Each structure stands twice: as C-alpha cells, then as structure tokens.
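Sequence in, structure out. Go.
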Amino acid sequence: DLMIQIYDPSNTNFRMNGEVLHPERCEASFILNGVWIVELECSFNPTIVENAVLSVPTPYGKKQLYRLFKVYKDDDFSHAYGYPIFLDSKNDCFLFDVRPTDKNGQEALDIMLNGSKYSASSNITRIATSYYYNKNFIESLNGNEENSFISRWGGEIAYNNFEVIVNNRIGSDNGLRAEFGFNLTGINETVD
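Output:
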C-alpha cells in the first residue's frame, strides 16, 4: 500500500503505522551525490511539525523516511520539507579516530559505521585508505575534503532509511531514450 504517513518527532519505531495524511502535493527529488528532499503540502494539520518523520513511497522503496526540517503553516495549509532520515547520522554518528586502511568500499563503510544504528552497502572494489578525525559520518562520506569517502573510493550515493548505498553507479543504462519528436511531447524545467 502506498500511503503517506507522519510520525511524532519522539517516535523511534517506524514498523507500526503512523497517522495517514492525504496531501494535496508530496514530491521527492533526488540529486546524485547531492540533496535529497521531500516537499509536502497538506490541509492544515497540527501533527506536521519540525522533526516529525514522514513515510512516503519513492522509487527507492514504498516506505522511505524523511525527517522534517522546515515547516510553515497558514490558515489553510501545512507546508513541510524533509531530508532522508539517514542524515540524522550527522548528529549521532561521529568518527573520532577512524582509519580504514587498504580497504574496499564495503569494508571502509563498515568500519566507519561500526557501533552505530546505521548500515551501508557498496559494490566498490577499489582499494584505498583514509583517515577521519573528529568528523560526523555525513561529512566523512561526502564532504568537500580530499579525505572524504567519495574522494577516496568514488561512487554514487543513495539513501534507504537507515542504510546508505554507495555503488560505482546507482541505476543502470537500459538503452531507453527520451527525445523531442520521438516520444517526448513536452518538458518542464525548474532552475534553482
């Protein structure tokens, strides 16, 4: 079933159903190795508050969790924006002195997430070494430094609730094409 649900900010068990929402609009967008975000517009609802968790169906799964970071309300509507719940790791998964040495992608991620509630999967076979000192996991994964996981091992990032997937490539080329005059009659574009 493809429901959109909301959970109280203090909730930690997402196996049970949350409150079902019937939004006017709920859109998720994904930028490869960049920002993943969900936008929600719903009739005014007092349960839509900052730090609440939305469960929404996406191409990555029927029940993907997003932590609301921005909410605003007017007389008629509640508007909210959320990041994948995996990004909570920036506040509770710290690497104080972690040194994956001569490891492939999966081995390095396992070392980086050791002892946390988060997990990772990777098909990266490249062997590399990195050193993380007093950094949160997200910064270590995809920060701007040459020492980040993406800089050392490469890969493309996808989030699946409390799991991060870092593969050589996310998705696949199945030989499909979208071309004006062939099978595409129009396009909408938004530049930010």
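Check: The chain has a mean pLDDT of 90. The radius of gyration is 19 Å.
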